Automatic annotation (TrEMBL):
It comes from Actinosynnema mirum (strain ATCC 29888 / DSM 43827 / JCM 3225 / NBRC 14064 / NCIMB 13271 / NRRL B-12336 / IMRU 3971 / 101). It comes from the Bacteria. This is Diguanylate cyclase/phosphodiesterase. SUPFAM superfamilies: CBS-domain pair (SSF54631), EAL domain-like (SSF141868), Nucleotide cyclase (SSF55073). InterPro entries: CBS_dom_sf, Cyclic-di-GMP_PDE-like, EAL_dom, EAL_sf, GGDEF_dom, Nucleotide_cyclase, Rev_trsase/Diguanyl_cyclase. Residues 1-238 form the EAL domain. GO terms for molecular function: cyclic-guanylate-specific phosphodiesterase activity. Residues 421-548 form the GGDEF domain. CDD domains: EAL. It holds the Pfam family EAL.
Length: 565
């Protein structure tokens, strides 16, 4: 087996955070002198050394990466059947990490094909062994390989790597775009991050960003090289955020709840809490793009942080160096400003606003539930992200009522469909609104629409499952959980609206969507249309309720049938 690996070298390809434009990890790719890595593994298989060769390749990747001295997480590849072998087969990988001084939590093992021929229980046991050792796990080839769908949830990987065979069809292939949306929904439920591989065109990159993918790699961003380009950036990928329409089409969860701090996460540059000032200085000198160093305890929890400029100012010059170089760096450090991974960007800015002004631009440390360091967030990135959110909100709101437009409701419906929730969608409008305008004038009509909008906004306050939007004209949309639907709808219809002393009535059509009963916002819209016509045919303020797959319609409010006006 060793002879098979003698001529193997490695190239390194960066993975980018599409929100910040920076490199967040590096993948090691085997480059044999002759043929491909697959050819090499096939030769090892014929020789009866497949698993040993696979592990040996991963170990070599770790050692080759150490020659370039970068602190970013390293991705290495292992076949799923290798991880399903006895744990002792993977021990050399941990020894290689120890030899080069790389922490296991700075390694991501990408599991690859074949999956279907790998015993599921043994694979899950191997994944648990890796995680117990501190190593993170990704599933490679998702979407175009033999990855069983149940494996996505059974493994609940740290990352899902979207195969280039899916990316190549974007943005024109509707089926692949739908698959991308579905996988993002899976990731939202499992806590995984979707990483797009093989990005080669600007159109693909734009489609991925619009869908809400926040990590990617590919030749468009940075090709694989013998020396990893960890300082690379992709500012061109961020320029699209200046287009409000493009921003408005991004992931539902991100835009409804606001960005999460993890959307702006950078890998932390860490050293043990006992590190000397000289060790910190050497790290900063070798990595000009690093804005600070986090000193962690033996369990990976942040103890201190060192901001680049303040630290270098303290140790620069003969006196500073002589005074501090061989002493613990913690003497010059600050206590970490830590935030939880569930923090929103807005909550993070609250921490910054009410903190020490001298540290307003310091990185914040993101920690998990065990207070272990997950990475750092740069304040400038978060400020930009919140600004984008405000631009999107301003662009999507109806100027008359200041309620979100139809796209916001569409994203909310799509999110609930993907999450398998039971919910209702309502279509509300003003009866005979054209007559109101013709009789009282368009200014009075605008006042009426504002009043309805205010009542909807007031009704939503304190309701966790209800969202409302203004489609345009006298048409409004609402999405609600069933527990809050009846109370909210009744409250709106009980409200009195009038113009020039004449009472105005409303019509509400609702569609109750059970899990799996609808597939998209477009389908919901189509099914609501006949319900709205029926509601409009009733006298007084009316309310009808229907369900997909049945012709039964419940009339909750409204008088005898009249001619449709």
């Amino acid at each position: 087996m060793p002879a098979l690996l003698d001529d193997v070298r490695f190239a390194f390809q960066p993975l980018f955070n599409l929100n910040t434009g920076g490199v967040v990890a590096v993948e090691a790719l085997a480059r044999p002198h002759d043929g491909t890595a697959l050819d090499l593994l096939q030769a090892a298989f014929r020789a009866g050394h497949l698993v040993d060769a696979d592990v040996a390749l991963a170990c070599r990747a770790v050692r080759h990466a150490a020659e370039h001295e970068f602190g970013l997480p390293l991705h290495v590849n292992l076949m799923s059947m290798t991880v399903a072998e006895q744990p002792e087969k993977l021990e050399p990988l941990l020894r290689a990490l120890h030899e080069v001084g790389r922490s296991p939590d700075r390694l991501v093992v990408e599991l690859g094909v074949p999956y279907t021929r790998t015993p599921r229980k043994a694979l899950l046991a191997g994944v648990r062994w890796l995680r117990d050792a501190g190593v993170r796990v990704a599933l490679d080839g998702v979407g175009d390989g033999d990855v069983p769908l149940a494996l996505l949830t059974d493994v609940a990987p740290d990352q899902l790597k979207l195969d280039r065979g899916i990316v190549v069809g974007l943005p024109d292939d509707g089926g692949r775009a739908a698959l991308l949306t579905a996988l993002l929904g899976v990731c939202e439920q499992t806590g995984s991050v979707l990483v797009a591989e093989g990005v080669e065109t600007e159109a693909q990159l734009a489609a991925l960003r619009r869908a809400g993918v926040r990590m990617a790699q590919g030749d468009l961003l940075a090709p694989a090289r013998r020396r990893p380009d960890v300082a690379a950036t992709i500012p061109s990928a961020l320029a699209e955020t200046a287009d409000p329409e493009a921003v408005a089409r991004t992931t539902p969860n991100l835009r409804l709840a606001g960005p999460s701090v993890t959307d702006f996460l950078h890998p932390a540059t860490t050293l043990p809490e006992t590190a000397t000032a000289e060790e910190v200085r050497e790290v900063l000198a070798a990595q000009p793009s690093v804005t600070g160093v986090v000193l962690v305890d033996g369990r990976g929890r942040p103890s201190w942080t060192l901001e680049r400029n303040r630290f270098l100012l303290a140790v620069t010059g003969p006196f500073g160096h002589a005074l501090h170089a061989n002493r613990e760096a913690s003497r010059l450090a600050d206590r970490p400003r830590a935030v939880g991974a569930r923090f929103s960007a807005l909550e993070l800015l609250e921490v910054v606003t009410h903190g020490d002004r001298e540290r307003a631009n310091d990185d914040l440390v993101v920690v998990d539930e065990d207070d272990k360091c997950l990475g750092v967030v740069r304040v400038a990135d978060v400020v930009r992200g919140v600004a984008e959110l405000k631009v999107e909100q301003a662009a999507s709101m109806n100027p008359l009522t200041r309620l979100p437009g139809s796209e916001s409701i569409a994203r909310e419906v799509e999110r609930r469909v993907l999450a398998g929730e039971v919910f209702a969608v309502g279509w509300l409008d003003v009866d005979s609104f054209k007559g109101v305008n013709d009789r009282a004038g368009f200014a009075a009509g605008d006042d009426l629409i504002r009043a309805v909008g205010r009542r909807l906004a007031e009704g939503v306050a304190g309701l966790s499952t209800v969202r409302v939007g203004h489609v345009g004209g006298d048409d409004f949309l609402l999405v609600a959980g069933l527990d809050e639907l009846i109370g909210f709808g009744a409250g709106v219809l009980d409200s009195e609206f009038g113009v020039d002393g004449l009472r105005v009535t409303l019509s509400l059509a609702t569609l109750v969507c059970a899990t799996g009963s609808v597939g998209s916002y477009r389908e919901v819209s189509r099914l609501l249309a006949p319900l709205k016509r029926q509601a409009k045919s009733l006298s007084g303020s009316s309310w009808v309720l229907g369900r997909p797959g049945t012709d039964r319609v419940d009339v909750l409010r409204g008088g005898p049938h009249l001619a449709v006006g």
